[in-house]
Design goal:
This protein is an alpha+beta fold. The protein is built from five helices and 13 strands. The radius of gyration is 17 Å and the shape is globular.
Length: 253
């Protein structure tokens, strides 16, 4: 994932409202979100190169998601896959707090990442560019390729769009996905400095990324009501035409 926007216990009907974009090289083989054949309670896409995922949820309500932390000055060539940090939590039984504490103990082995784990009632966050596991407070949050709630232009714009949507009595998953499809680049004076150079920094600055070989491959919306009805929608984009296909899953605990 490269942009995650979510509201926790803000809306009278929904305890979790989440919208996220996954950015990746177009050539990287990926399986769209579905319940996995070998783990029938796990709903997630799959990175077919490394076998992990960027975001997933179980029928019992365990949720985990990951973004990379962008720092080209500190790249480990033989680091383990970060996508397994998501699946290991989702397929386990350990509490999010304990799991992330365990991850922190080996965080230096990985390239930069941010990991959110928990469920719709309690979310926890650990990033290996800072110390400690943090319980995420109620409210509106955004995560991209820096620490949680870092004020990058795409994060701030996304949070504003999500906040506006939260004024609606009923939230439609299509409306959630629509706010993610914003390809307007940030002003030069607001660009972060992550070591990739001006041209790439500019290309990576929108909420929805388009380029010749890299971009926003899919968008995900998750809605969880206070009476535990789950809606998960993944919208995958054709990399040439940007036509899309939706996969929708609804269940209740």
């Amino acid at each position: 994932m490269c942009l995650i926007l979510f509201a926790k216990n803000v809306h009278p009907k929904y305890k979790l409202v989440l919208a996220a974009n996954r950015d990746e090289f177009y050539e990287r083989a990926t399986e769209p979100a579905t319940f996995w054949e070998d783990h029938e309670d796990l709903l997630a896409g799959k990175d077919l190169e490394a076998g992990g995922t960027w975001m997933g949820i179980t029928k019992a309500g365990r949720i985990a998601m990951l973004t990379n932390y962008r720092d080209l000055s500190n790249i480990k060539t033989n680091a383990p896959s970060r996508g397994h940090l998501v699946t290991d939590y989702l397929l386990g039984e350990e509490s999010a707090q304990n799991y992330l504490t365990h991850v922190e103990s080996k965080g230096e082995l990985y390239n930069g990442f941010n990991l959110i784990a928990g469920d719709a009632d309690s979310l926890n966050y650990y990033g290996n560019y800072q110390k400690g596991v943090h319980k995420i407070s109620d409210g509106l949050h955004g995560l991209s390729n820096a620490l949680l709630d870092t004020s990058w232009p795409k994060v701030e714009k996304g949070k504003e769009k999500l906040e506006s949507l939260l004024n609606e009595t009923q939230i439609n998953s299509n409306e959630l996905l629509r706010i993610l499809y914003d390809d307007i680049k940030a002003n030069d004076n607001n660009l972060p400095e992550t070591g990739v150079g001006y041209e790439k920094e500019k290309m990576l600055s929108p909420m929805f990324i388009k380029s010749s070989n890299y971009g926003s491959r899919c968008s995900t919306a998750i809605l969880v009501t206070h009476d535990n009805e789950f809606t998960f929608v993944e919208r995958t984009y054709d990399t040439m035409s940007f036509d899309h296909e939706d996969r929708k899953f609804v269940w209740k605990l």
